[in-house]
Amino acid sequence: MAVEEEGLRVFQSVKIKIGEAKNIPPYPGPNKMRDCYCTVNLDQEEVFRTKMIEKSLCPFYGEDFYCEIPRSFRHLSFYIFDRDVFRRDSSIGKVAVKKEDLQKYHGKDTWFQLQHVSADSEVQGKVHLELRLNEVITDSGAICHKLATRVLECQGLPIVNGQCDPYATVSLLGPSRSEAKKTKVKRKTNNPQFDEVFYFEVTRPLSYTRRHFDVEEDDVDKMALRVDLWNASNLKFGDEFLGEVRVPLKVLGQTGAHDAWYFLQPRDSGGKAGKPDDLGSLRLNIVYTEDHVFPSEYYSPLQELLLNSAHVEPVSASAAHILGEVCREKQEAAVPLVRLFLHSGKIVPFISAIAHAEINRTQDPNTIFRGNSLTSKCIDETMKLAGMHYLQVTLKPIIDEICADHRPCEIDPVKLKESENLETNRENLRQYVDQIFSVITKSGVSCPTVMCAIFFSVRESAATRFEEDQDVRYTAVSSFIFLRFFAPAILSPNLFQLRPHHPDPCTSRTLTLISKTIQTLGSLAKSKSGSFKESYMASFFNYFNEQKYTDAVKNFLDLISSSGRWDQKTIEMPITLKEGFMIKRAQGRKRFGVKNFKNRWFRLTNQEFTYHKAKGEAALCSIPIENILAVERLEEESFKMKNMFQVIQPERALYIQANNCVEARDWIDILTKVSQCNHKRLSKYHPSAFLNGHWLCCKQSAESAFGCTPCTGGLPANIQLDIDADRESERIYTLFNTYMHKLDKMQEACGSKAVYNGLEEDEYSGFVIDDAKETYKTLKLIISAVHTLEQEHVQYEQDKFRKTKYGSQEYPIGDMALQCYIRQQSEGTP
User: Fold this and answer.
1) Is residue 358 part of a domain?
2) Is residue 343 part of a domain?
3) Rounded mean pLDDT of 547-571?
4) Which strand (E) or helix (H) includes residue 654?
5) What are residue 257's phi and psi, to 5 degrees?
6) Domain total for the chain?
7) What confidence score (pLDDT) does residue 749 get?
C-alpha cells in the first residue's frame, strides 16, 4: 500500500530474520526452563508471531518475515513472551528500534539487549493542543496572565486490555506546581474528541521587560505544560498510563499563542530500568526499505534501456547485464530486473540471452551455472515468483503430512535415539522420498509455462555448446528445477510459503535428509551413492533402483523443457491462496438471526471464499469468486473496531476484522486481485456500515441504495505476478545511483586501450566487457538517465522540506525521524 504525496507514491517494507534469543532469565521455579515465542510489532500492534520454542532459555527461532507496511509508525518492536503451565502469556522483554535508527542495522546480524516492558514505555498516538496566554485584569485592577490550554483531540491511542476509554489530565509545571485538571472520559474510542479548555495562572505581577503581554523570561524558562493521557479502568490496580506531552512555555514566543500536534512520549519517571544484560538478548537482521516512486513517465527512458537488453549485441553491453556487473551481490540486481521483465512479458528472451552468453563462456559442462551468476540468480527469482503456486499444489500436501506425523527418519547411527530402530527409520524416510519424488516427476503438466520456456532455452544452448555430452541437456535443467527449486522448498518450506513457521528440529532434520536425497536423485550423477560425503547417506541409496529413478527424472525434464508445449492447462484445480482466523459479523442471512461477531477460519482459493468454525471443518458459508463485487476497507466508526474490511456480495456485505493492519491489507489485496476479472464489479460502495436503518456514510435509508464512494480496485491483475513496474524501476535507479563509482570505473575500463582491444587488464578484470564500444554507449545512456532521476529526487526533497510544517497533524512534534530530516535538509544534506 502506497502513501500518495502529490503524484509521488511512498512504499515502506521490512524484511526480518528472527534468529535466536540467549540468556533468557530462568523461570522462578524448579523447572527453570521457559516456553517462549517472539512477536513483531509496529509500535504496539502485533503483525507476526513465531512458533513456540519449548523448554529453553536460548530459543532458536530461525524465522523470516516480510511485509509491506501500510501505515506510519514510530518503532519496530520485538517482544519475547513466555507461556506458563496455566497457558498464560507474560512478556519477558522487548527490543524497540526507532524508525530513524533502522538504517543503522540494515542487513546486518545484530544482537539487541532485551529491555523491560512497562506501561510507561509503551506509548503510541498523538494529541492536538492549543495554548494561548491571556491578559486578565483582576477585581483589584491588577494585571495577571492566564494560560488557556485547549485539549482538542487525540488519534491512534493504544487499546489496553481490549478497551480504550481515554481521558486527559493537564497540569502546569514550574516553581510551584498546579493542581492537575481532568477532561471527561470518552468511552470506547481511541480517537477521542475532547475540545475542553483549562486555565492556569502563570506568573506573579508582571514586569514589562519584554512585550506587554509576556511573562518574565526567567519564569517562562522554568515553566512547562504537561498533558497526560490515561485509560479509565474498572480494575482495582488503577487507570493505565497511555503517554504524556511536555510543552515548554517558551513555544508561546512573541505571539503568546501556540497550536500544534504532539506525539505522546513515555513518562520521564517511568518503570525502573533493569541491568542491560539481565533479560537476555535477541539476534535480528532487519532490512527496512522506503521507496519514493514517481509517475511512470519519469522512468520511461530507464525502462526502455533495460527492456531492450535482450536485443543488444553482445548482451554483456546491455543495461541489465551492466547492473549485474556493478552490484555487490547479483541477487540485488536479479530481484528488480526479473520483476520488471516479468511485468513486461520479456523475461524469457532476456534470460535466454544472458544464459546463452554464460554457457558460451563456460569451458566444462560439469560447471554450468555452478556460480552465483546473474543468470542463475535471475532464473532462481523467476522460479520463486512464477512457481509459487506450482509448489503449493505439488509439495504442500506431503510437507503438511510430514510436519503432522513426526515419524522418526534419522539414519545417522551417531544421532539415533535409544528408542529408535535404524531400519524402521530408513523405511520411513524411503517412503517420504518416494512420495515426494513421485509427485514431482508426475507434475510436469503443472509446471508454469514461463519456467518451461526458460528451461527449453537453457537446454538448447547447453546441447549446442557441448554436443559431445549427451546428458548436458538434462543436467543444465535439473541444476535449477531440483537443486534450486524443489530441494530448497523441501528444506525450508516456510521460506516458500508452504508452512507458516520454521519446522521443529526433528521435522527439520527429516526434511534435510529428504532434500539431500531428492537433490541427488534429480542430479543424474553417474554414481549417486558416491555423491555423498556421509557413509550413512551412501548406504541409504542401496534402497533405490538408480536406473528407474534416472528414467523418471529424464522423462520429467523432457516434458518441462520441450518446445512443443501444451497450451493453458485444461483442468482448473482449486489452489489455496490464503487462510487464517479472523472475526466476522453475521451477514443477516437468517431473518431473525442475531448479528453478532464470531471468530472463524477463513479460506480463499481461486474458486471460492469460505469460512469455517475451525480449520478442517465443513464450510459454514461459501462465496463464489464471481459473487464478490468489491472488497474495501470499512470505516472504524462503524463498529468502533480497527482493521475491518467488507466483502460486498449482490445482496449483502460480509464485515470482517483482521488481526492487524498488515493482515487486513494482505486480505484486501488478494481478494481484490482474485475477483478483479468479475465483469459485475461495483464502481461505487458504502465505506461505512448499514446500521439503525441507514448508511452511516451517506445517511441513505434504503439498504439497497447505490454506493456513495468510488471503489479503489484497479485493473485486472495477475494474482501470482502482482508487480509494480515503476517501483521496480525506482529500485534499479537506486542501485545504479549507489554503484555510480563502479559505472565510472567501467567507463574508464572501456576507454582503456587493452580492454578496447579485447585483452585482459588486471585493474578491470572484475568486469565482463566483450565489446568496449557498445558497453561505453550503454553506460553513457545509463548515467544520463540516472542523473535525470536524481535531479527529480533532489527537487522533490526541496519541495517537501519547503512544505513541511512541523507540528501539523501530518508531522507532529516529537517525531525524531522528521527532526533528523529537517536538520539534514537545513544543512544541505541530500
Assistant:
1) no
2) no
3) 70
4) strand 653-657
5) -140, 155
6) 5
7) 87
Same domain, 420 and 554: yes
Q: How far is it, in rounded angstroms, from Cα 601 to Cα 614?
A: 5
- Confidence at residue 219, expressed as pLDDT on a 0 to 100 scale: 59
CA distance 731 to 743: 17
Per-residue pLDDT reduced to its tens digit, 188-231: 888 999 999 999 887 644 343 444 444 444 455 678 899 999 99
Q: Quick one: 422 and 558 in the same domain?
A: yes
Question: Minimal CA–CA distance to 350: which of 317, 375, 377?
Answer: 375
Over range 369-394, report the average pLDDT.
91
- Establish if 546 belongs to a structural domain: yes
Measure the CA–CA gap between 572 and 697, rounded to whole angstroms. Answer: 40
Q: How far apart are CA 85 and CA 80, in angstroms?
A: 17
Contact of 218 with 243, CB cutoff 8 Å: no
Q: Are 805 and 259 contacting, i.e. CB atoms less than 8 angstroms apart? A: no
Give, rounded to a whole angstrom, the gap between the first and last alpha carbons of the chain.
Answer: 26
- For residues 751 and 635, membership in a common domain is answered with no
In this prediction, residue 208 carries a pLDDT of: 39
pLDDT at residue number 755: 66
pLDDT interval class at 640 (50, 70, 90): confident
- CATH (domain of 693): 2.30.29.30
Residue given cell 480496485 in the structure block: 713
**Which residues have CB under 8 Å from 586's CB, separation 6+?**
593, 594, 595, 596, 597, 598
Structural domain containing residue 439: 388-566
Mean pLDDT taken over the chain: 85
Q: What are the grid coordinates assigned to 292, written together?
A: 519514493
Copy the grid coordinates of residue 735.
542501485
CA distance 360 to 440: 30
Residue 626: inside a domain: yes
Distance CA 440, CA 449 (A): 16
Q: Whose grid coordinates read 543468470? A: 375
